[in-house]
Amino acid sequence: MALNIIVVGTGYVGLVTGACLADAGHNITCVDIDQTKIKRLQDGNIPIFEPGLEQIVKHNVEAKRLTFTTDLISALPKAEVIFIAVGTPALPDGRANLEYVYTAAETIGQHLNHYVVVVDKSTVPVGTALAVEQIIKKNYTGEFAVASCPEFLREGNAVDDFFAPDRIVIGVRNQRAADVLLEVFKPIQGQKLVTAIESAELIKYASNAFLATKISFINEIAQICERTGADIEEVSYGVGLDRRIGPNFLKAGIGWGGSCFPKDVVALDQMAGDGGYDFKLLKGVISVNQEQRAHFVNKIKNHFNNNLQRQTLAVLGLAFKDNTDDIRESAAIDIVQQLVTAGAIVNVFDYKALTNSKMVLKNTVKYCTSPEEAVKGAQAVLVLTEWKEFKALDWRTLKQTLAQPVIFDGRNLLKPATMCELGFDYHSIGR
Ligand code: UGA
Question: What local confidence, expressed as pLDDT, does residue 43 receive?
Answer without folding.
Answer: 87
